[in-house]
Amino acid sequence: MTMKDVLDELAATRRTMGTAELPAGDAYTIELRRHYDAHPDDVWDALTSPERLSRWLGPVSGDLRPGGTFALDGGEHGDILRCEPPHLLRVSWMFGPEADEWPGTSEVEVRLSPGPSGGTAFELVHAAAVGEPMFPTYGPGAGGVGWDLHLLALATLLGGGGTLDHEKFQASPDGREFSRRSAAAWGEAHLAGGGDPDQVAAAVEATTAFYLPDPNAPTGTGPR
User: Fold this and answer.
1) pTM of the model
2) Which of 94, 108, 128, 141 could be a cystine partner for 186, CB 3.0 to 4.6 Å?
């Protein structure tokens, strides 16, 4: 993958912020919309087949059916709330065992529809309860940069390019530039959504520092 390919993929996604209601109350949303050349059935299979899901999102286990549960090896887990093939998938999206103490605070919904000139219109909406701890520091980049990286991996898979090695890519010059520009793009979405300019600038700086860490800086927790 060339730098042009990486930047073209970054530009292919439209990023916005919005609001939603979750079982736990008011929520903010980070929203990603883009087009994939693949047929909706192929994209749906990549979203729901454990073997293909592992190649762009991560190894998954659980009772993968409506009403069941899932768990990713990175610690993300939840319940499968709606599954309407091949158009809509909604899951609760929790990270770490402590998150289970606050049910109904985070959900991800993916919607697929035929594109106007073929392929698939893809929408991903991640809703998180207002007041969740990552937002004040990282803004929408708390989840947005990670989703950008995963959707790049999905594009690679759907395009026949195989599996993107997340760790290797993120450590590469192309991957670092992708993360830097993704953090900036989420800052633009935050501003467009009414964010305070000073808070947005601080959030972009914090997100960028997390994804492009100083090798001499102490490690810590950050966006998921």
Assistant:
1) 0.92
2) 141
